[in-house]
């Protein structure tokens, strides 16, 4: 496989870091406290096993348990097969399974280096690290990968940034039609210290701008209230969402 994103200095200093998780969910209406990393158990097919996202393929979802030697062995086999069959693949669910195998293998053996050795073949530390980071993305982002709205190759670059910037970059892909190359460049700029909003603005993407469709009743009332209160409709929506997410 051809690695299409540059390896940063940060990629070299954390080879022994192993993805961790707990048993919470990052769904729901939490405000201000949502996690920018995966919070479900490593290897668990939370998104892939959801029929609302993957349809009938949910029954085929395979999980990997990093605490089960046999499951770790299956993960190693999956990683090797995945590394030999990713170029040009349009099967997003398959890519997420490969990412899960990478993360579970790392967790199971204790390091990226050992994971690459267990997988064998031409599997590299860089390959495993990149895809394990995709598995570490929050569920809200992974669901869009499974739906086909965010390309797995774009997800690799989204996973290179940390914190809320991950969400900003992911939503920019959805609302700003960023290409994979643009996502890669924005991720590199953000990691170099540039504010994500500034990097996106240079590519004509404004954070916070979203096209929505409302029912006729809600649209009529929104326009009426905004006019009476001498406010832009966006301010009224923002205030309403602020109260909604506080619940």
Automatic annotation (TrEMBL):
Residue ranges annotated for the DUF7119 domain, each copy included: 65-205
Species assigned in the record: Halogeometricum limi
Coiled-coil ranges per UniProt: none
Renumbered residue ranges of the record's region Disordered: 1-54
Name the UniProt record assigns to this protein: DUF7119 domain-containing protein
Pfam families linked: DUF7119 (PF23433)
Basic and acidic residues bias locations: 9-29
Gene3D superfamilies reported for this sequence: 1.10.10.2830
InterPro entries xref list: DUF7119
């Amino acid at each position: 496989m051809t690695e299409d994103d540059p390896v940063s200095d940060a990629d070299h200093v954390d080879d022994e870091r192993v993805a961790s998780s707990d048993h919470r969910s990052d769904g729901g209406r939490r405000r201000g406290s949502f996690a920018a990393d995966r919070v479900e158990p490593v290897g668990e097919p939370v998104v892939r096993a959801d029929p609302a996202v993957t349809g009938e393929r949910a029954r085929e979802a395979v999980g990997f348990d990093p605490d089960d030697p046999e499951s770790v062995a299956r993960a190693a086999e999956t990683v090797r097969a995945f590394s030999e069959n990713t170029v040009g693949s349009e099967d997003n669910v398959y890519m997420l399974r490969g990412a899960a195998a990478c993360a579970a293998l790392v967790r199971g053996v204790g390091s990226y280096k050992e994971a690459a050795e267990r997988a064998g073949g031409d599997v590299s530390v860089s390959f495993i690290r990149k895809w394990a980071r995709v598995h570490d993305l929050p569920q809200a982002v992974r669901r869009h990968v499974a739906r086909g709205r965010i390309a797995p190759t774009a997800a690799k670059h989204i996973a290179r940034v940390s914190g809320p910037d991950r969400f900003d970059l992911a939503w920019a892909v959805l609302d700003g039609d960023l290409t994979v190359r643009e996502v890669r460049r924005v991720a590199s700029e953000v990691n170099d210290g540039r504010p994500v909003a500034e990097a996106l603005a240079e590519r004509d993407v404004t954070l916070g701008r979203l096209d929505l469709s409302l029912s006729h009743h809600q649209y009529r009332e929104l326009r009426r209230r905004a006019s009476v209160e001498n406010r832009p409709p966006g301010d009224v929506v923002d205030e309403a969402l602020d109260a909604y997410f506080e619940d």
